[in-house]
Fold:
Amino acid sequence: MQQTVLATPMGPIGLHWTGETLTGVDLEPLPAAGGADVAPPTLRRQLEAYFADGTAVFDLPLELGGTPFQRRVWAAIRAIPAGATRTYRDVARELGSAPRAVGQACRANPCPIVVPCHRVVAETGLGGFAGDSTGRKLAFKRWLLRHEGVAVD
Structure:
């Protein structure tokens, strides 16, 4: 697995990949230690396009792992278009599950931003993001939604 840290308007993010396949996005990366790898051109280009225009669509090969249920949740989340949100309850109803289970699958998402779990919100308020309900990661969720044109508090 290769990795690098990419500067973005919301701060640095870590990227992990194998070959041309994205395997992880780290919202709180450690500084790159000596000679960071250069991300594959398609991966870098699509992320740069997204940070320039929040409506840009990702079409990257992904290796997400996860349980069958998590993969179903992540597929449902990937179908939410930029600029739109769904509640945990909405996604749960679609999948015949419970909102808490959807939230746990969102928390386990290895590729936030590309698998846009930030588009899943609570019935009232933002909910959490990558296991954070008050700190830096939640600020990322707020930034991502605003970048996509969603009005948030």
